[in-house]
Amino acid sequence: MAGDTPVSATAPRLARAAAGRLPLALLLAVAGGAWSPPPTSAAQDDGGWNEPRVLDMVDRARARRAVPRADSGLTSYRARATGYVYFYLDRGDAGERNLVKTDQLALDIFWAAPDRTKQHIVGLRDASSLPNNIRYHLDHLTVVQDEFPDVIRMGDGDEVRDVPHPAAPGSDRIYDFRLADSLSIRLSDRPDPIRVYEIQVRPRRFDVPAFVGSMFLDRESAAIVRLSFTFTPASYVDRRLDYIRVSLDNGLWDGRYWLPHEQRLEIRRQLPEIDFPTGGVIRGVLRIRDYRFNEEFGEIFFAGRPVVAFPDAALERFRFEDELHAEVDAEGLATPLELEDLRRTAMELVGSRRLSGLPGVRLRLESASSFLRYDRAEGARLGAGIAWTPSPTTRLELDAGYPMARARAGVAVAAEGPLAPSLTVRAELFHERMRDM
Length: 437
Description:
Elements: H1 7-19, H2 24-30, E1 34-36, H3 42-45, H4 52-65, E2 76-91, E3 96-112, E4 116-128, E5 151-154, E6 160-164, E7 175-185, E8 194-203, E9 211-218, E10 224-231, E11 241-253, E12 257-269, E13 274-275, E14 278-293, E15 307-309, H5 312-317, H6 326-331, H7 337-350, E16 361-364, E17 372-375, E18 379-391, E19 394-403, E20 410-420, E21 423-431
Parallel strand pairs: 4-15, 13-16
Antiparallel strand pairs: 1-7, 2-3, 2-14, 3-4, 5-6, 7-8, 8-9, 9-10, 10-11, 11-12, 12-14, 16-18, 17-18, 18-19, 19-20, 20-21
Helix pairs in contact: 1-2
């Protein structure tokens, strides 16, 4: 590998030019490697949780995080990050998404041993499709440079706090670990392949703030190559949070350093009291490139706040390489494959437990007219319902209404659940429902 092109940076460009984003196993294979199936064992057939070799790998990752990067010859770096943050309205049951606001930003990020960081927001522009007064938390607009600290917080602690990192000291008392996949990458300038292990992580208790997802570790150094995760419901401080999903992807820079390459974030909110089908979604993507290593910054450079925004006039003058809506025009607002894979993995790990931060039982309003409407056939009609979601794949609904003109109450009951791993069935029973002819 020549220059500062990361292993995980080459593959996404090739994949997007073909048929969209691919799973990490395929991405790494495109980058010049070959995928190896995960090793099998009798213990894995029984679940494979907390095998000695897996716990040893996690111990090495824990020790690796405690060693300053300077020990590898890296004393500092700087890089450029560019990306987008979208806010849109999402009706999950119908697959409808309406863009409200787009932000495009550029940052210069800096790091120096042992753990000093600085980020400069050097470019920022936005456009709104609908009136709004949206403001983002600062960590929605910046780069995670350390794969998160030992205690994970998001939204300045207003969204998530007190979540132990799976590679933090003592994490083996909080989490179970399982080897899920093994990847091999062959590079032209390295005689031996790079091996990457996917280790799935689930909490031992689901009633506490915790991480649910996967760590991808370099077998040789135990460095974190990727984190892909969501949270237990107890992690969410904001009662409006349905879920938060995070994907942090590192690249092998200069042939030695696993450093940030791409990060993706998706946050969905709804009213906690009302089961209304439309929610607000924040989705962000940042890509990091143009690394420069071992430059001198000086002690005073890192003084003050860790994130600084340039003046508005300077932010507006920044010249972006891509148009403001270039990415959303190309990819749309559908959930990226890596975050969709994360959702499926998390559901597999938690089984029948709920992952949503919203209450399991809520007042149900299918639409605004479900509560109150008027037409000539029914006159004034009052209605309401209740929804119960006991698991990620099971849902029960009860709706009732009373039309004044007809003076006959209507009721509907619906149940939704899995018939097979990839097949969901919905059944409805109703009485006195108005239908179009």
